[in-house]
């Protein structure tokens, strides 16, 4: 007679290929299905967990979809006014330099109302980490055109597509940040495939490690979809991202060890 395996027999360390980090709360993620925010949250928390830094980390979440981060991240979190996360992170880090401090921001927040805060924090070389999720649109407030919206890309405020003549060019904020002397590590990643998830986690880990070494500002952009704002299924949104976002926002390291990657 075949032996009957119990749940306890199966759930052993050698059989587990994945388990949720304890730094993610039990609250059900409220992001749209297919959104990259949930995966990015998990990666940030996994890295902090692996660093053993839960009690020594402070995250700052401003307005936008990223404002929900404090509901899902089991660390000390502080909400900031729209676009002001880098300024608040600067204050916290200067007052408590031994803390691991990061901001978690979207493109409408970081590259629009918060452009000045972002650029000046980077130019000063504040020893913080910025996690920047770029989906090319205002996801939470109605799908309006963002500074990162692609040429010809439709949104609720550019229903015929972004017209460069009247609406200007998309802002490649990450390349701009990389050229400032205060930045030490600047990279652009994605989380739509397992391979990209591994690369993104490695980049986040490196950014935090460099902050612990007091190297200056580290910046990790995550190019993501917004299937709700783009009016697509998650699968189609991921493919559209690959076909359209990646050529304009190419993945990879932009600045490493204080030097631009050629």
Describe the protein in words:
This protein is an alpha/beta fold and 262 residues long. The chain has a single domain, classed as Rossmann fold (3-Layer(aba) Sandwich). Helix content is 38%, strand content 17%. It has eleven helices and eight strands. It has helices at 7-10, 37-51, 69-72, 85-95, 107-113, 115-124, 164-167, 173-178, 194-212, 227-230, 234-248, and strands at residues 57-61, 76-79, 100-106, 129-134, 183-190, 217-223, 252-256, 259-260. An eight-stranded mixed sheet has the order 2-1-3-4-6-5-7-8, with helices on both faces. Helix 3 (69-72) links the parallel strand 1 (57-61) and strand 2 (76-79). The N and C termini lie far apart (65 Å).
What is the gyration radius calculated from CA atoms?
19 Å
What is the overall silhouette? Answer: globular
Count up the helices. 11
CATH architecture: 3-Layer(aba) Sandwich
CATH class: Alpha Beta
Q: Mean pLDDT, rounded to whole units? A: 92
- Tell me the number of strands: 8
The CATH superfamily name is Thiamin diphosphate (ThDP)-binding fold, Pyr/PP domains
Q: Label the structural class.
A: alpha/beta
* Main beta-sheet strand count, sense and barrel state: 8 strands, mixed
Number of domains: 1
Helix % is 25-40%
The order of strands across the largest sheet is: 2-1-3-4-6-5-7-8
User: How much of the sequence is in beta strands?
Assistant: 15-25%
The rounded distance between the terminal residues' Cα atoms is: 65 Å
Uncertain regions: pLDDT < 50 for 5+ in a row? none
Query: What is the string of SSEs from the N terminus onward?
Result: HHEHEHEHHEHHEHEHHEE
In CATH, the topology is named: Rossmann fold
Kindly report the oligomeric state of this protein.
single chain
